[in-house]
Amino acid sequence: MKKILLLILFLTYTAGYTQTASIKGKVFGDYFYNLQDHSKASEDQNGFLFRRLYFTFENQLTDNIKMRFRLEAKHEGYGEQEKLYPFVKHAYLEFSHLIPHHKLYLGISSTNAKENAEEYWAYRSVEKTIMDLNKIAPSADMGLSLKGDINQYIHHWVALFNGPGYGSSEVDKYKKLGYALWITPVKGMMLEGYIDYEAQDPKTGTFGPAADYFHSSGYRTIEGFSRVNFQSGATDSSGSKKCDVNKTGISLFGNFTLITSKLAAFARYDYFDPDTDDNVYLDSGINGLNDSETLVIAGLDFTVMNTLHLIPNIIIKRYQNDNIDQDIMARITFSYKYDTGKF
Q1: What gap in Å lies between CA 70 and CA 95, rounded to an integer?
Q2: Are 105 and 147 within 8 A, CB to CB?
Q3: For residue range 151-181, what is the model confidence (pLDDT) as tens digits?
Q4: Which of 20, 202, 243, 264 could be joined to 60 by an S-S link, Cβ 3.0–4.6 Å?
């Protein structure tokens, strides 16, 4: 912790030479109440918590080089008696003008798997996007990426990352290659395609949180989304044939203004199936029969002042398996941003 504080002081001191540094961030948390839960032990759990605390330092080192250093902290959840320890979420250099209309990122930066979807969802303070929520893709990773505009309407983003995500060092010799292409025909509308691939060594099983736990020879993700773990440790009903494991999901969401610009409503529907083939058995011995889930989120967004929002919302999770009761959580979410401006 002392090292992190010293680093922040150093960055703040050196920023004085450029006069183009800034400190900014975002905070959001909730008062939550589990009205119903498929695990009876979790019913009636309630409390206040921070789900995210961001501290971001940015400095324009030269006309073409910018740096970012972001710390993140959060409560671990109900019953976890851990302090709010910060960790590094972003640490990168951004190079502009190396290629016209493009930016190059080196270090721990946002991944191209979910950034655009999260921007259009607009309510990360309420919940992660479907791919992030189901650990299909991390929000940040260590590596190299290039993002830019092909023309006014066509944009793309290619990245080469370690693969495990920002919370881990590299765990094998393979790298994750991802590519996103999106079109913005009119303001407020985006059509996006995304694909990634990373090979894996099925003998080691040392896979990061973004690559699933199956002992596969590699995985591929297509936005929409479809995740395939090739020739994984999962087997068919005979227990002898190694099988691909297919995960799939879809997310629909929208928001609109009510009466006044300071009041909005939003809703979202997710469908997620962790194993689409009923004849594929996971490491736990459970097959893909009746294992899909749906998630419904709805709420109101009150703009109290500037960037301060109060967001009452409800989250309902239903399971295809009739033997599992649905989960219902009610929350009052608060969210605000801060920004010192350039100094």
Answers
A1: 18
A2: yes
A3: 999 999 999 999 989 988 888 889 999 999 9
A4: 20
Q: What are the structure tokens assigned to 146, written together?
A: 């290039």
Integer Cα distance of 65 and 106 in angstroms: 11
User: Which tokens go with 316?
Assistant: 């309902």
Report helix, strand or coil for 131.
helix
Estimate to the nearest angstrom the gap between the alpha carbon of 229 and the chain centroid: 20
pLDDT interval class at 210 (50, 70, 90): very low
Burial of residue 141 (number of CB atoms within 10 Å: 0-12, 13-18, 19+): buried
Position 19 pLDDT exceeds 70: no
Q: Which residues contact 113 (CB under 8 A, 6 or more apart)?
A: 131, 136, 137, 138, 178, 180, 194, 196, 221, 223
CA angle (235 as vertex; 318, 279 as ends), nearest 5: 50
Report which secondary-structure segment, H or E, holds 147: strand 140-149
Measured between alpha carbons, how far is 274 from 158 in angstroms, rounded to an integer?
27
Instruction: Report d(CA 74, CA 72) in Å as an integer.
Output: 7
Q: How many CA atoms lie within 13 A of 71 on its CB side?
A: 14
- Cα 309 to its chain centre, rounded Å, is 21
The pair of structure tokens assigned to 310 is 């109060």
Per CATH, domain 25-76+84-339 is 2.30.30.90: no
Gap between the Cα atoms of 193 and 224, Å rounded = 8
Cα 74 to Cα 90: distance, rounded to the nearest angstrom: 15
- The strand pairing partners of 5, in sequence order, are none
Residue 225 preceded by cis peptide, ω within 30:
yes
Is the separation of the CB atoms in 190 and 184 below 8 Å? yes
